[in-house]
């Protein structure tokens, strides 16, 4: 049993079952035993790999797209360059390197990172050096400036709640203890206000998920972006959640979500609908269409960039570069599962690559 499994088991014995969201929050961010609090989980030796860790092309293209947004909007200065959940800091380092040649951009930007893990903050500091970013625990403390904000695989780490339909009501999926082990169960049925509209498109027994933190965080970011800039969200998921998408990954392979609390990464599909809906609650904001990552990167020019880099490579390095291009863009890999959405001021030019 992991140390965190013992803590959760004792807590449930004393206080009763926990929601999936409470469990996920403890597994990922418990200050002593949480997954992100205790390690650097990325790459070959870690548990999973993300797009910026697969190839420098990802961050380069996103950096140039953000610089284009900045130029399209008249080069506001100062402007906050913000990343949520920067992991190892690779994406931000690639963004900064790729934009070095954009006149005036580096003089205008202040770099801000929203990161909960002290361990990963140390890794980020090394990766983005000599740039010295400001770190934030939450988006709330970001400056009130025009902001270029990127979040890659951040929203999928935010805790979700799960509900199973029972007639006109919902039973919440809860984590309890049976025979000394953590196990899933269901609460008694009760009406759930925020799911009233889902009675129209679900049937008895269907499971839906909500991410209570996602909308408020998106709104906090949108209030910066409406002054100028853009929010770019890239994540796996879709439109309108349906079904159980809670997933635990350890050593690059799926494991049951409750077997190794604190020792496996836990994520869930991102429902982009409530993120796009922020464009309706914050006046003056527009949401882009939802575009698959493969289409987005092709539109930004990943193929010519891949060819230019390939010209300098041979042997195993060339093969791994070709595999990385395929992994980021092919529909059977990350190309279709991952989606991209931008929020930006109503009057602004569309975000590069995020049009119909
Ligand atoms: N964007 C990176 C890493 C994604 S992993 C990449 O693409 O490689 C998720 C990141 O979000 C980690 O850095 C993790 O520590 C951070 N994180 C998770 N939940 C968070 C929260 N509630 N607040 C701030 N950071 C969080």
Q: How many structural domains can be distinguished in the coordinates?
A: 2
Biggest pleated-sheet summary: 9 strands, mixed
List the total number of helices. 13
Which stretches of 5+ consecutive residues score pLDDT under 50? none
What small-molecule ligands were found?
A: S-adenosyl-L-homocysteine
User: How far apart are the first and last residues' alpha carbons, in Å?
Assistant: 49 Å
Principal-axes geometry comes out as globular
> Roughly how many Å is the radius of gyration?
21 Å
What's the CATH C level of the largest domain? Alpha Beta
CATH topology type of the largest domain: Rossmann fold
Oligomer: single chain
Please characterize this protein's 3D structure:
The protein has 356 residues and is of the alpha/beta class. The chain folds into two domains: 80 residues, no CATH class; 204 residues, Rossmann fold (3-Layer(aba) Sandwich). 35% of the residues lie in helices and 24% in strands. Strands 2, 3, 4, 5, 10, 14, 15, 16 and 17 form a nine-stranded mixed β-sheet that branches. Strands 1, 6, 7, 8 and 9 form a five-stranded antiparallel β-sheet that branches. It has a three-stranded antiparallel β-sheet with strand order 12-11-13. A hairpin with a 2-residue loop joins strand 11 and strand 12. The protein is globular, with a radius of gyration of 21 Å. It starts with a helix and ends in an 11-residue tail after the last strand. The mean pLDDT is 96. It binds S-adenosyl-L-homocysteine (SAH).
């Amino acid at each position: 049993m992991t140390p965190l499994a013992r803590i959760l088991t004792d807590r449930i014995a004393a206080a009763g079952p926990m929601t999936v969201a409470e469990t996920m929050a403890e597994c990922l961010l418990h200050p002593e035993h949480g997954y992100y609090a205790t390690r650097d989980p990325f790459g070959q030796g870690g548990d999973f790999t993300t797009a910026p860790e697969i190839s420098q092309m990802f961050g380069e293209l996103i950096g140039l797209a953000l610089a284009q947004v900045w130029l399209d909007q008249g080069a506001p200065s100062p402007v906050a360059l913000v990343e949520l959940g920067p992991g190892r800091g690779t994406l931000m380092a690639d963004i900064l390197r790729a934009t070095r040649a954009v006149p005036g951009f580096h003089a205008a930007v202040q770099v801000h990172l929203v990161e909960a893990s002290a361990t990963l903050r140390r890794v980020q500091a090394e990766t983005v050096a000599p740039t010295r970013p400001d770190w934030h625990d939450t988006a709330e403390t970001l400056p009130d400036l025009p902001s270029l904000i990127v979040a890659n695989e951040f929203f999928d780490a935010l805790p979700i709640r799960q509900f199973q339909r029972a007639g006109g009501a919902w039973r919440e999926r809860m984590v309890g203890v049976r025979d000394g082990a953590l196990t899933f169960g269901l609460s008694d049925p009760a009406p759930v206000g925020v799911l009233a509209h889902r009675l129209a498109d679900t049937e008895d027994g269907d499971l839906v998920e909500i991410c209570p933190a996602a909308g408020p965080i998106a709104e906090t970011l949108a209030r910066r972006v409406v002054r100028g800039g853009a929010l770019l969200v890239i994540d796996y998921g879709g439109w309108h959640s349906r079904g159980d998408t809670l997933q635990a990954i350890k050593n690059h392979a799926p494991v049951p979500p409750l077997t190794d609390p604190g020792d496996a990464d836990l994520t869930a599909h991102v429902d982009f609908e409530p993120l796009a809906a922020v464009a309706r609650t914050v006046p003056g904001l527009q949401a882009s269409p939802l575009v698959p990552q493969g289409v987005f990167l092709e539109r930004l020019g990943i193929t010519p960039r891949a060819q230019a880099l390939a010209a300098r490579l041979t042997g195993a390095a060339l093969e791994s570069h070709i595999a990385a291009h395929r992994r980021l863009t092919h529909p059977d890999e990350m190309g279709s599962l991952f989606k991209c959405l931008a929020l930006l001021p109503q009057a602004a030019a569309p975000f590069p690559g995020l049009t119909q």
